[in-house]
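Hello Y.,

Per our agreement to keep a running log of every chain we model this quarter, I'm adding this entry. I've kept the format consistent with earlier entries: sequence first, then predicted structure.
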Amino acid sequence: MTGRAALCCKSEMCDGAHMRNFGPLMTAAILITPFAATSVAAEPAAQRLTMRSKPLKSALLEVARRYKVEILFSNDTLRSFRAPAISGTFTAQEALSALLAGSGLAVRGSRESGFMIVRAPQSDIPPAAGMPDILVVGHKTQNADIRRRSNDVQPYQVLARRDIRMAQAGTVDELLGKRVSQNTAGLSSAQKPQGSQGSVRSNFNLRGLGMDETLVLIDGRPMPRVPGMKFALAQADVNALSTGALERAEVLTSTAGGIYGPGAMGGVINLVLRRDYRGAEVTATSGLTSRGDGAYRRWDARAGFTPDGGATDVMIAYSRIMSDGLSNGERDYADRTRARKYAGGLPSLYVELPLSSSVNIASIGGTPLTLRAAYGGQALGSSITYLAPQDGRSPGDLGAALSSRAGGLDTGLPSGEGGTGSTLVAAQRSSMLLANLRHRFGSRLEAYLDLIRLSDKGIINYSRSSLTGTLSADDPRNPFEQDIGFVMPAPGLGTKGGTETRTTRVNAGLIVSLADEWKANLDVSLGRVRQLYAVAGRTYGLDALYALYGVPLAGRPALDPFSSAADFNAALADYKVQSSFRFAQVNRMSDGALRIAGPLARLGGGPVTATFLLEQR
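Predicted structure for the entry above:
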């Protein structure tokens, strides 16, 4: 905020008798005054006004001249706005309201004190005059969702651009996780890499009714749902959408199935994109965790122009997101969890033995272990023990080591891809391409074409670097008199991959101004999403399990879990194989809608509108 002096236009439109002090103003504010110093009160309250579409600043100058009123605004605020064409009989305030309809701006003041153009609070933005809620609201946003206010009969939360910027969120998933308390999704897909098959797609769960019951829209239109691994359609993925591309996020946290159909019982999330941008900008965002790792980088580029003086608007935006993710070795979460889980011994069966650098052992029946006579014959007094890599493998050394570690387990993570190198948070590689073309054919017809292309890829290391097996009491490799189960590391094994989701939506439409401020909107949307799950790396074949159970195939070496680490790894190398797997799914979407709407009556609180909708999905 600067100064208290308003700048006055220096052309013939400025008259000294009309200079006023409006208090603290934004830098480069402009005060528009009429041509002459004639008394405002002497002017008629309403006039016939016809005005073509033009830059908003020019339209305000014409209103100031015609109605001989003072109008104060910030030049920076109006730079990218255009006024719609209007025709009718208006008072000065009605004319200003009509010019600002759907722009996110509001008029304050009166004819006597002067008018001020300001940004309206998000919840206070009224629908465009004569434009029913369900139609595309003006040409500023092309948002086809239902407009609501904060005191609506249904709870509606709006995150404006300032809220989005202040959140400092790297993804849309993170943004709504921080700012919408009704979003109960908990961990993101990236934070549960094994369970999500390396996907980093968005997850929204309003009111805890499930992600399948939260509908995701962009500009009020549905996005194609992602095909799931269980051959069911999951929630649309919008995580590749840059938060810098959002004008606002609208969240309806109540049942909306009656309006939007199936899949909206939990609520609706509508992401409204920035439009009407002219010029060019490139921004870069980067960050690290407080520990200096998990690097995040984002590049945003946007360009907008009009090739014909305002009748046509073109905008293109591109974004690229790269995050490094985290491995389990970079945090002690797994170590602390294991220490607590096994503080009292093995929770239940041997299958819960932890993978570590050692061979962890448990009796299958839970009975205390007893060594064979060849290994010392000691009773361990516990059903669990472990053998460390540095322990000797002669019968005497082996028995002494197993006996000394009775009642304990090695809970530390092993080194390599299956342990410290396994993924804690998936790495992300995402990109976004937006393109928008609009053309106005006079004052009554507007056409638009919109493209959204999102690519979202997660990358993880899979923890397939262990061998789990059992040895019967009569197996010569078993040093115990009981049947045992064991888990041991398998160095050099592991796969890397993840899931990539590519989403494309194209929509085109017409907005027609009919008589008596009625409007019609024809909109067609086509969408496609392709999800690819792919992994590759080194693993062991089924013949390794045969060898581990004591029945190696002809010509293949035996695998003894109680041999030295060097001997075991040398034998295991004979069973290592290259492995790869790819699984792709595709879903297609089409949606066509015809909306006709307009005012039925004008009341003190605003117009009463009716909407007729015919839709095919």
